[in-house]
Amino acid sequence: IRDEPKQLLQLISSYDHEPLLNIVSRLPVHICIAQQNSKNPPDDLTQDESAIIRLYTMEWDSDSSELRESLYLFLTALAKISAAPRQTVWRGLRLDLSNDDPPGEEVTWWAFSSCTTSLRVLESDLYLGNIETRTLFSIETINGRTIRSHFHSTTKDEILLLPRTFLEVKSQLNPASNLHIIHLQQKKNIKTCSS
């Protein structure tokens, strides 16, 4: 989040002309697990569409950037999932972001952002934990995607915010020296340029 650009970026385009990639040969073990767990998926998704979401949510030794070539399949799958109702979701990072954007500032998150509806999930040391410097985002969403039915682990209530999510910083709180809470409210994608 800290390294994301502050200026408006070009929309993702031309991915819709890419073929649905056969990524099975590139990631055989992960693909096999994801496909086996994606039989008869809900939300009118195909097995491959559900599997690509599961691949995104699996724990990886590195980030899930290996899946970028499958962006078309991933976005096609997410487009079929209805937007979740308005709700508050949580995202935690192990760094201090409290000085990056003051209340009233509008920010854009350009990447996919994994959030949860359960604070308990963030207590795990795999995520936010209870020690070190941390920033906890409380986000009022308007169109996240509920991907629990396609999540690799069935214990998480994950909401995925799509790239180019516009947010307004509403307030901040520092209840402890190493814990920063930032309240964000999602806005409609209003930053557009007309030709």
Can you put this structure into words, describing what you see?
The protein has two domains: 15-80, no CATH class; 87-187, Alpha-Beta Complex (Toxin ADP-ribosyltransferase, Chain A, domain 1), CATH 3.90.176.10. It contains four helices and eight strands; from the N terminus they run H-H-H-E-E-E-H-E-E-E-E-E. It is globular. It is an alpha+beta fold. Helix 1 (28-36) packs across helix 2.
What are the main properties of this structure?
Toxin ADP-ribosyltransferase, Chain A, domain 1, 3-stranded antiparallel beta sheet, 26% strand, 8 strands, 195 residues
CATH C-level name of the largest domain: Alpha Beta
Question: What class do helices, strands and sheet pairing give?
Answer: alpha+beta
Element pattern in H and E: HHHEEEHEEEEE
CATH homologous superfamily annotation of the largest domain: Toxin ADP-ribosyltransferase, Chain A, domain 1
Radius of gyration based on Cα positions: 17 Å
Helicity range of the residues? Answer: 10-25%
Head-to-tail CA distance between termini: 29 Å
Counting DSSP H or I runs of 4 or more residues, the number of helices is 4
CATH topology of the largest domain: Toxin ADP-ribosyltransferase, Chain A, domain 1
What is the secondary structure topology, with strand pairs?
Blueprint: H1 28-36, H2 47-57, H3 71-80, E1 87-93, E2 106-109, E3 113-116, H4 119-123, E4 134-141, E5 145-146, E6 158-161, E7 165-176, E8 179-187
Helix pairs in contact: 1-2, 2-3
Task: Describe the structure concisely for a colleague.
The chain has 195 residues and is α+β, with helices and mostly antiparallel strands.
